[in-house]
Design goal:
The protein has two helices and two strands.
Length: about 90
């Protein structure tokens, strides 16, 4: 979740400074195998239990959903969306 918070805040700053950002995609929906680290560094929005194949949304998935919903509800460009970290929402657990 910290990666998303930091990256979207930096993206917001870049847009405010005039960067032409047209979209953002999270790196990976699901935890998966990484060639350099195997399964030791899970980075998806959804945890995968590789033994049972059960998928569970992580706190980063909820954070990202809130971020996207904020953008959708304001019908604004990404530059108008204040990163949730700056509003104190990102530290909320749920």
């Amino acid at each position: 979740m910290a990666y998303l918070e930091t990256y979207t805040a930096a993206m917001h700053d870049a847009i405010s400074a005039g960067a032409d950002v047209r979209g953002y995609f999270a790196w990976s929906l699901l935890d998966s195998f990484e060639w350099g680290a195997g399964y030791t560094n899970p980075f998806g929005l959804v945890h995968v239990d590789f033994e049972t194949q059960k998928r569970t949304p992580k706190s980063s998935a909820r954070w990202y959903a809130n971020f996207v919903e904020q953008a959708r509800s304001t019908q604004a460009s990404p530059a108008a969306v204040t990163p949730l970290r700056r509003r104190g929402v990102a530290n909320r657990r749920g």
